[in-house]
Amino acid sequence: MMDEENTKWTKEWEASSSPGWAMKGINPYIKKYKDDLTKGMDCVKLFFPMCGDVEDMFWLSELGHDIVGVEISAIAIQKFFNDSNLEYVVTPCGEIKGSLYTSKTGKIRIYCGDFFLFGASIECNFDGIWDRGAFNILDNCDLKTDKRNLKKEYINILKSVMKQDCHVFIELVVSDSTAKSDDMQSFFGEDYLVEDFGLVEKYAPEYDSFPFKGFQFFRISKNNKI
């Protein structure tokens, strides 16, 4: 993503250590779909794009899973580790033009930098991917660039780091511009199976003041029948 857009999001975190759109607690739907996301296994590698400080990552790591996130704001990452009472180390990461925050146990790694510099050369072979609003962020960009092409670039990064049997969950805010199943299928292509899990109502009080109906969940996997 271009530097000015990254600056916008870092300023959101600088203005408030807990932005209004940052939900507190664990997403009830990651609990509902956990066994699907992890394929029922005890230790898998999970990816959280544009992760912010979501508590879901700590919860899943405590269950035994390896967690990788990418986030532009160092404030959000530091808040995640501090709120989780986790010690961490920070090392430079030239590939993403930023830093890597790693928990002392090594179970959680969060890259601080531009998501669009991330890819299989940095981390890959993910068993599951949980997109909690990252795809929506691209609709809120102020950039003049073609947002559809930006979304395709985002999806291509996800596709490049998936294992063959990886499950991707994408949570979208439901509004007039929300992607429908056909739209999501066009982003992933015919080699992928896109399943629409339907609309759910707002599930946290943090969202009560926001003018949208609820959320729509998609599950995407490689279409092994092709």
From TrEMBL:
It holds the Pfam family TPMT. InterPro entries: SAM-dependent_MTases_sf, TPMT. Keywords: Methyltransferase, S-adenosyl-L-methionine, Transferase. One of its GO terms (biological process) is methylation. Gene3D superfamilies: Vaccinia Virus protein VP39. It comes from the Eukaryota. The keyword DNA damage does not apply. One of its GO terms (molecular function) is thiopurine S-methyltransferase activity. It is an enzyme of class 2 (transferase). Transmembrane segments: none annotated. Its EC number is 2.1.1.67. PANTHER family: THIOPURINE S-METHYLTRANSFERASE (PTHR10259:SF11). This is TPMT. The lineage of its organism: Eukaryota, Metazoa, Spiralia, Lophotrochozoa, Mollusca.
